[in-house]
Amino acid sequence: MKKLLMLCSFVSVLAVAACGGGGAAGGGDGGKCGGGSGCGGSTENPMAQMMVDQYKNGTSKASYYVALHKDAKAGQYWEVKSTSEFSGYKSENTDKWQVAAVTGDGPIVENFMGSMGIVLAYLIDTSKSAEDAMKTGNVKKAWVGKPGDAPAEIKIMDIPTGGETGPAPEKNYEDKTEDFTDVEIAGGKWSGKKFWMKMKDGSMESTTWTATNGWFNGLIKMESKMAAGTSNMELSKFGEDGKPWLKW
User: Fold this and answer.
1) Average pLDDT of the residues in 74-86
2) Residue 170's pLDDT is what?
3) Residue 189: in which H helix or E strand, if any?
4) What is the maximum alpha-carbon separation in the chain?
5) Which of 61, 170, 174, 206 has a CB 3.0–4.6 Å from the CB of 224, allowing a cystine?
6) Which DSSP letter does residue 43 get?
7) What is the pTM (predicted TM-score) of this model?
8) Residue 207 has pLDDT above 70, yes or no
9) What is the residue extent of each domain of the chain?
10) Which residues of 48-80 are buried (b: 16+ CB within 10 A; e: fewer)?
11) How far apart are CA 81 and CA 103, in angstroms?
C-alpha cells in the first residue's frame, strides 16, 4: 500500500511539472522567492490575486497533510529544482518550503508557489507519526497570501474517509527499493532509500532518492521518463537562515 501511495505521489509530481504549476506539494519559483533571502522582484504575478481570492472564498482549499521532518527549527528551508520536457514544451520550476516559525501550537510551514505568485502556510500537528499524519491529516490551520502580505486563514480539505474496501487492484508496475549512503548533493551528504518503479506497459519509469536525514519530504533527486517526455528533480539549496514570506 505504501508503494502504491508513492506511485500516486510520483504521478502528481509529474503532472505539476508538466503544467509548470504548483500545488500542495510545491510550486515554481517564478524568479521571485529564495530561501534565506525572502522575496523580491518588482513585477507581481498577474494570477496572484485571483489565486488568493480562490483560497479565501473556499473555491480552493489547503492540503490536510504536509510532510515535515522531526525537530523542525525556524529558518530551515529546502529547495528542489525541477526541469521537464513534455511534448516539446520545456519548463523549470523550484519547489520551496521553509519553517517560518515554531510556536506553542506547532511549527508554521510556508510553501512559496512561484508560478502562481502566492504563499500557502500550514500550522502542523507534530504529535502524529508520519504514517498516521498521511491517513488522518496533520494540518491544524492554513493561510494564504502574496509575499509580504499578512496571512489570511483559509479552509482545509476534508480528510478522505475509508469506505468499503474491495479486492486489491492488480499490480501493474514493477518496483525495487534499496539503500543509498553518503550521496553528495547541494553541499550536503545524504543517506536513505532509492525507489525504482516502472509501469508494466512501459508508459512511465521513475527513480527517486529520499533522504532520511533530509528535511520536509526528504526528496533529493528524482528522474522520470514518460511517453510524452522527461522530468528531473534535484535538491538545489538548503539552509537555516530562511526569512518568512508572509508578515506574521
Assistant:
1) 95
2) 86
3) strand 188-199
4) 55
5) 206
6) P
7) 0.81
8) yes
9) 2-32+47-157+173-239
10) beebbebbeeeebebbbbbbbbeebebbbbbbb
11) 29
